[in-house]
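Try it yourself: sequence plus farnesyl diphosphate, in.
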Amino acid sequence: MLNNKLNKNLLVASSHPLGAMTAEEAYLWEKLDLARLPRHVAVIMDGNGRWAQKRHLPRIAGHRSGTQSARITIETCARLKIEALTLYAFSVENWRRPKTEIDFLMALLREYLRKEMPLLQKNNIRMRFLGRIDELPAGVQNDVRDAMEKTAGNKGMELCVALNYGGRAEIVDAMNAILSERNGHGTSPKITEEQLSQHLYTEGLPDPDLLIRTSGEMRVSNFLLWQIAYAEIFVTETLWPDFNRARLLEALLEYQKRERRYGGIGEAEPSDEKPARAAGN
Ligand code: FPP
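Structure, out:
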């Protein structure tokens, strides 16, 4: 007979896509509609500092613990066959932090890429980095390039790490790329939404359907400003180091409750009329 303690950490068949699960995870999994998962999930991993503070630990302990939540989120999304996951690891504004914290974050990322390479390969994950990568320390740039090269042939989930990333900087970079392409070519002065999208760091990726932010802050913090135009936003009070697989499944379930209208009217209010204009016109 299963005792209560064992039952709480119930193991299900090893052939399950998520492997062993707790009873809570199995309960949430049962409710999930695998045919209606988001194609692209973006995450603002916030609350590392507060998590550490609550435990009278230095802020960097929160960042280190946050890598475990990143690992769980990455592996779960890959196993759910979500097309893309974008994690906000370091913003252009984060340079305002103390140098020791910045150095620690850069070292942590390098360590993560080295240590987690087997997990990334096992899960067929392709890595990509979004941001002004050429402004990062040379060692970080090398590791970033190396991680992309090593995983370039993988055909599973695309894992994007936003690093030295800013949404406004990204749009400015895209505009400058368009301008420099045009130099000397007498092309039309009009820039279209499609053209701008093709020059963003996220070129070729679907826009995020779901944006998760931990730690309860109601801000988008210069993250994927263009791409989240119609993303469903899920804010949880959970601090990033406490974010686990059950919390991720909850976010996906909440996403599945939302009705996505893209500025149109809902399916609950059908209309016989055709749309007056095509979207974006
Ligand atoms: C925000 O918390 C978190 C960061 C700025 C860094 C996030 C980085 C990691 C979790 C490292 C691992 C990354 C990868 C991709 C493996 P905060 O410091 O702003 O927290 P606070 O708001 O409580 O101070």
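One thing you can check immediately is this: The chain has ten helices and six strands.
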